[in-house]
Design brief:
two-stranded parallel sheet; 35% helix; 12 helices; mainly alpha; 344 residues
Length: 344
């Protein structure tokens, strides 16, 4: 009797847990709502504040340590709309996003809005550090800005020094800092921004130009112009040659579709079978590993394998070749035309 009572008590204790598991199995709901990201210290969020940046960007404050920078920023700097990092500037943020309803100069409120909601909403913290106009890796590349590369690679400047130089000096001279945007090109291409100051042109592109599908580089073709060129030069119908691979299927829109895989131009299949005097050596199918050793059994530095007139790969196969370094010129396996012997 005691055993039965114990089992009954155990079963009753387990029942609520089973019900709780069933309760959490709810249907998945997809939503594009932006959830807030609470922060205990929004003023010290790394997107908002970098003590090294703050000290170097605001030398008049006379700050020598990170602790001094933190103290000054949290007590006065943020409220006075000073810039605390490369990635956020309260004055820019308030200027661009008037829809927030924040009063001019309310940089403390702008910081809290950005950290809690704005970043998750895709809002940009500072227009002059937007990745489309400033790409750090592109900027310090020796091929793009050798003088900046020398200062950075030698250790004379660190990343913060490079960023501050861009903000304080290089925007004004229209230095290119991205593969996707050039202030000079942008102003030369669009007359309505040609008379703006460099920083104004940069701001216009980030806040409006991109949305209008404007191009940041002068040499890029306009999408409509490029489409017209393609339409004028591209053959509307591709016809299959004898060696091409043709596959037909029904597309997702329900329409019949044909795909033609063009054969390499250098490959000319014989119009008739090889004569019996031609010895054909067949390379085994690929083995999913490096087929180099297997492949070079038939194609050697001295030519094709002895006794082979023609080396033929397995049909419908893709060979995986890991080429050794410093290949000698003899290992040139691009097929060439071969005059075949004829039956006597």
């Amino acid at each position: 009797m005691k055993k039965i009572s114990f089992l009954l008590v155990l079963f009753l204790c387990l029942r609520p847990a089973t019900a709780q598991v069933a309760d959490v199995q709810r249907p998945l709901v997809l939503s594009d709502a932006v959830l807030p990201t609470p922060s205990k210290e929004p003023l010290l969020d790394p997107r908002i504040f970098n003590p090294e940046f703050y000290r170097k960007f605001n030398p008049s404050l006379g700050l020598t340590t990170d602790q001094e920078a933190i103290q000054q920023w949290t007590s006065a700097g943020a409220n006075h709309c000073l810039r605390g990092s490369f990635y956020f500037y309260g004055i820019d943020y308030l200027k661009r996003y008037a829809d927030l309803g924040l009063a001019p100069g309310a940089c403390d409120s702008a910081i809290r809005q950005f950290v809690t909601y704005g970043f998750n909403q895709g809002r940009i913290g500072a227009f002059d550090s937007y990745p489309i106009v400033f790409d750090f890796n592109y900027y310090v590349d020796v091929a793009n800005n050798p003088d900046i590369n020398l200062l950075y690679s030698s250790g004379a400047w660190d990343q913060v020094d490079v960023e501050i130089d861009w903000l304080q000096n290089e925007i004004a001279v229209r230095r290119v800092a991205s593969a996707f945007f050039s202030i000079g090109d942008y102003q030369a291409r669009y007359p309505d921004v040609s008379g703006l100051r460099p920083e104004q042109a940069l701001f216009q592109y980030v806040t409006k130009g991109q949305a209008d599908r404007r191009l940041g580089k002068f040499l890029w073709a306009d999408p409509l112009e490029w489409s017209a060129v393609v339409a004028a030069t591209q053959n509307p119908v591709v016809t299959a040659a004898p060696n091409d691979l043709v596959r037909s299927f029904t597309a997702a829109n329900g329409k019949p579709t044909t795909v033609i895989v063009k054969s390499p131009k250098w490959y000319i299949s014989p119009s008739a079978p090889y004569p019996s005097s031609v010895h054909i050596c067949d390379v085994p199918p690929p083995n999913a590993n490096n087929d180099w050793n297997n492949f070079t059994t038939f194609l050697t530095p001295q030519g094709v394998k002895a006794g082979c007139d023609v080396v033929r790969l397995a049909p419908n196969s893709s060979y995986h070749l890991v080429l050794p370094q410093h290949q000698p010129p003899q290992l040139d396996y691009v097929p060439e035309s071969l005059a075949l012997p004829t039956d006597q």
